[in-house]
Amino acid sequence: MKWTQMPLGAIQTNAYILENDNKEALIIDPGAEAEKVMTFIKDHALKPLAILLTHAHFDHIGALEAIRNTLHLPVYLHAHEQEWLSDPEKNGSTLFPMVEACRCQPAEHVLTEEQNLQIGNFNCRVLETPGHSPGSVAYYFDDDAVVFSGDALFYGSIGRTDLYGGDQDVLIQSINDKLFSLPSHTVVAPGHGMETTIGYEKQTNPFLV
């Protein structure tokens, strides 16, 4: 499997496009610029299978409806944030005047617990990582040694917890219990900024050392 990081929108939220040898693809967190994502899919002759959401803040779902409706893809999201898709107050889009109120249709697949997901030939483990938001999850691909962490863990930092439903103590516990239990060589592909590794963050992250 290979993945492409695609910073999108005013906040430069990282969307990811994953592809395997069969040209199947998954889209993680399409936050804005739907045409850019769909052009990439078309130019690389990919066959998208689903959209995975790490959480439902506006900057991670801004292009969701356009991509879902055009490519006819199912969406995966944790149950704790199912109603956030249609609620601009909870998804945060009302907090930023430059952002249009974000309202999306419900997710087709609601995650209620940690589980293994198999979508086409993709296999990953869903890890519940609340704190930045109540329904935050990470998608861990063991065979590829990468975890898509959303806004839980960043290079040298952690997610903000001053938005609706945020809790810093819960977030730090999630990182320590879930993400830091992964092998040290695991690549962390975050919702913003550059990639890092679990081992590097264990040793250097000032919020966690």
TrEMBL record:
Its cofactor is Zn(2+). Coiled coil: none annotated. Pfam families: Lactamase_B (PF00753). CDD domains: metallo-hydrolase-like_MBL-fold. Residues 12-192 form the Metallo-beta-lactamase domain. InterPro entries: MBL_Glyoxalase_II, Metallo-B-lactamas, RibonucZ/Hydroxyglut_hydro. It comes from the Bacteria. Keywords: Hydrolase, Metal-binding, Zinc. Gene3D superfamilies: Ribonuclease Z/Hydroxyacylglutathione hydrolase-like. GO terms for molecular function: hydrolase activity; metal ion binding. The keyword Isomerase does not apply. This is Hydroxyacylglutathione hydrolase. It comes from Pullulanibacillus pueri. The lineage of its organism: Bacteria, Bacillati, Bacillota, Bacilli, Bacillales.
